Amino acid sequence: MTTYSKATGLLTVLLTAATVPMIAVGKKAADPVATAQQQAAVQVDSNRAWLREQEKRSADLHQNTPVPEFLRNQPPRSLAQDDQSFIDQLAAKQRQDAAEQPAEGALYFVSFAIPEEGMRRMLQEARRFGIPATLRGMVNGDMRETVQRVQKLVEAGGIDGVQIDPQPYSQFGITAVPALVVRCAAGFDVVSGNLLMAQALKKVAKDGDCAATAQALLDKESGK
Q1: Domains plus CATH for the chain?
Q2: What are 162-218's pLDDT values in tens digits?
Q3: Which of 200, 203, 201, 207 is CA-nearest to residue 219?
Q4: Out of 39, 41, 153, 215, which could bridge 205 as a Cys pair, Cβ 3.0 to 4.6 Å?
């Protein structure tokens, strides 16, 4: 197994390609097994080339972004299992990191079903307030398409990326996006709908159980 592991600075991508033996073909009719193996080899080369392209584009945006330690330690993986199993592992790592952070804070729930212009504005606002944005899963279940969609937003400027983790959607009962969750020792508040981030935080600061946390985020953004 040959493992290709790169951090794009947007989403972490791990692609593994099995080394495919090439079988010589004489003058007889093409062996369907050999043909399938050759096609698989072409797909592997395509994946390698695509990953090199993502690495180069990411390097142009994030020249000094280090590869996370947990990614460097990833074992080889099967290409057929890669996308969802890797997302599950990445989400578990994110939850572990979140568990080590203070209980107070906020999380912004978004989806690529939101039009691109609106999505860009939402992610820019989330970045301005230091609030991480999260997706429920990959776009159409495809890692490559997800990375490309996020990369397009990043290249337009003003955002750093998003995380993928379905667990908070269940934890906080999120069924519609966009939605803002502000959490604290007393519990959490959910504000759904297409509101500006400042408006959503002000609503929690006025009426929510986590009013102090929301106000702290507002004060931090305004420099108070």
Answers
A1: 2-79 (no CATH), 102-222 (3.40.30)
A2: 888 999 999 999 999 999 999 999 999 999 998 999 999 999 999 999 999 999 999
A3: 201
A4: 215
